[in-house]
Structure formats: C-alpha cells, structure tokens
Amino acid sequence: MILSDNEVRIVYSFATAESFPAADAFDILSESEKSKYERFHFAEDKLRFLKARYILRKIASSYHNNCDPKEIQISLNSFGKPYFNDIPLHFSITHSGQVAAVAFLKSYPVGIDIEIKREVSDMNQLAQRFFADAEVNYLNQFTGEELISNFFRIWSAKEAYIKAIGLGVSNELKSFSTIQNNTLSTVIDFENYSNAYKILEVDFGSQYASAVCFPGSLKNPNITVANFIDK
Hints:
CATH 3.90.470.20; 5-stranded antiparallel sheet; 4-stranded mixed sheet; 6 helices; alpha+beta; 2 domains; 32% helix
C-alpha cells in the first residue's frame, strides 16, 4: 500500500459470514486477539471483530514490505488505544452492524467510529448527560428519524475524537463539542480551549452514522474510502 503524507485511507468491508474468509482471518490473529475473539458470545460480534482485524493486518502487511500479517506486533497504550510497535503508521478500528472499517494515517493520530442508527428510549437523557450544550441545542431542532440520525452523527463524531487523542473514556464526553456554528466539522475542547482536531463524516449508507477525526495540522487532507479486496 502506498499512502501519501496527507491521505486518510479508510478501508472497509460489508462481507457476510458466507463470503468472508473467517478461517484465514482467525489464523493471522495474535494469541491475545484470539482470546478476545473467543470471549465474544454472539457470532455477529465475532465476525465484526475478525473483519476489522483482518483488514488491519493485511493492509499493514502491504504497507510494511508485504511482511507476514501474523508477525505484525500491536500493543495498547495505557488507555487501551492500539498501535503498531514497529510500523510508522497510525490507525483506528471501528465496526457496527455489517460494517468493519479501519482508518490509516502516516504522521498523525486518527480516529474513526461507526454507529448503526437505532431508536434509543432515553435518547434525550443520554444527550443531556454526555453531550456539550452546543450539541444538545443542535439536537433540539430535530424530532423523529431526524433526531435519531443526528444523535448518532454526534455520537460517532465524539467517539472518533476520543479514539484520535487516545485517551479513551477517561476524557469526559461533555468536555468538548463537535458542533460549532450549527455544523459538525470541528472539535472544540473546553479543557484546553482548542479546536485543533477536524471531523469529517463518512458515508456507509443511510442506516449508519460515521465520522473520522484527525489533527487540524494535517494540511489539505485527502480522504479516500475503499472496499477491502483480499489479495
């Protein structure tokens, strides 16, 4: 894989259990990944996990001199964010519904999240609890399906930022807003009064909300989205 300095490469798969090479995917997992896979109770969760890890290891292999995908070393920081031990490449993993996706970026941290849109009984209470005032005010203009759609647009954007900065849930969700001037494009972090991260939405179909987040210092970002093709 050739990746330009300003490119955010998003690789995804809609593959079903019938068309996805589950045995091959399981074979290239690390022992810790295999253990995590076995802890999932439902087949759908196992498939999503396999797809994401297979994409990650196969693409990283093509980027790193076509090395053996099994040999790629992945560690976790103290907040649980995964990273390559010896490959100069940032990545972020997400999966929901039938979609598994991985975002790659060379020189900057990146975060991606996807959420399947669904009705949530306590949506307004969740927004009040976890969303910043600007995000709550933005949601107040919607009802019905539009409320559901925009709730998950904000939720996926917030998750993408959390993944990009690598702090996990230790970062208070109300401490930043993804809405500015009634649009979703920039993170406003109230703790350090910065808007150093940008957000772009990714289209995986009308039933999903997805966003990718990266530092604003990435000049002229080129977002490419590609269906994963195993070679």
